[in-house]
Every structure is written in C-alpha cells, then in structure tokens.
C-alpha cells in the first residue's frame, strides 16, 4: 500500500508512472511540489517520497474518506428529462439500465474473485462498488414500478 501511496503522490507531483517507489521523473516537476527528492545515482535520478509528500498524501486520503462531495450521475439528467419519453420508452430504458448494472456487477465480482487474496483496503473498494450497484438495482426495481402505465 505504501508503494501505491507514494506513486499517487508522485503522480500528483507530475507525470509519474505507477512503477512503484523508484520512479524516474524529470527533476523540475517534482522539486516544485516538494513531494519527492532525488536519491539515486548521479546518471539516473530516482525520486523517493519526502515526509512532506507523505503528509500531503495522508491529508488527501483522510479528506477523501471524510468529506461528502456531490456527484451528478447521468441517470439524474435522464430522469429530469424523462417527461420527453413516452411511458413504454422510459420503462424500457430503465430496464436496459438494470441489465447493464447486473452485467457490471457480475464483471466486478469476477474480477474480485480473480484477484484473491486482496488487501483489506482493496476488498473494501470492491465491496463499496458492488454495494452501490446493488443499491441502484433495488432503486431501479422500485422506480420502474412507478412508471409502468
């Protein structure tokens, strides 16, 4: 996990690949953010995370976990404009969405099974996504019932 955090900080600092802790970067991009510092041999600069970079990454992770940010799924735009569709067309569109959600759920579940064992944080990410999809499927089942004519 530390390697991913470091890669994320370095990527935020500018242009890093996700190759782990030792990521070669052009010095100006990293030095401006103070997130990484050259630590390798003279011919090839290898950047490692600094304490300041770790601090920024920790703060960003905590903020992402605690702050609620509005999201605007496209389905809300579709619902807002659903009076433009006739009843059967609306119901069909919602049913197609339910099928797509089910397929997405199956794909994510298969991906999760194929990557076992998972670190707890990764398992939680899969669980969160699967839970959101299941909640939307339940909502769709109720909503389709409202629009049946």
Short overview:
The chain has 149 residues and is mainly alpha-helical. The protein has helices at residues 2-14, 27-33, 51-66, 74-80, 87-114, 120-147; strands spanning 36-38, 47-49. It folds into 2 domains: 2-66, no CATH class; 74-147.
- Treating each run of at least 4 consecutive H or I residues as one helix, how many helices? 6
- How many domain modules? 2
Shape: elongated
| Rg over C-alpha atoms, rounded to the nearest angstrom | 22 Å
Could you please describe the fold and organization of this structure?
It contains 6 helices and 2 strands. It is mainly alpha-helical and 149 residues long. It has 2 domains: 65 residues, no CATH class; 74 residues. α1 crosses α3 and α5 packs antiparallel against α6. The longest helix has 28 residues. The chain is elongated, with a radius of gyration of 22 Å.
List the topology elements:
Elements: H1 2-14, H2 27-33, E1 36-38, E2 47-49, H3 51-66, H4 74-80, H5 87-114, H6 120-147
Antiparallel strand pairs: 1-2
Helix pairs in contact: 1-3, 5-6
Main attributes?
mainly alpha, two-stranded antiparallel ribbon, 66% helix, 6 helices, 149 residues
């Amino acid at each position: 996990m530390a390697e991913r955090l470091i890669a994320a900080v370095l990527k935020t600092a500018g242009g890093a690949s996700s190759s782990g802790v030792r990521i070669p970067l052009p010095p100006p991009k990293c030095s401006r953010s103070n997130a990484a510092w050259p630590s390798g041999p003279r011919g090839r600069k290898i950047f490692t995370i600094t304490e300041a970079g770790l601090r920024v990454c920790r703060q960003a992770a905590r903020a992402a976990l605690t702050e609620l940010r509005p999201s605007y799924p496209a389905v809300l735009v579709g619902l807002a404009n659903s009076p433009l569709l006739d009843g059967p067309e609306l119901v069909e569109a919602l049913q197609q969405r339910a099928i797509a959600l089910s397929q997405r759920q199956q794909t994510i579940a298969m991906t999760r099974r194929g990557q076992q064992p998972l670190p707890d944080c990764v398992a939680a990410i899969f669980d969160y996504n699967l839970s959101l999809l299941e909640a939307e499927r339940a909502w769709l089942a109720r909503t389709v019932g409202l629009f049946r004519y």
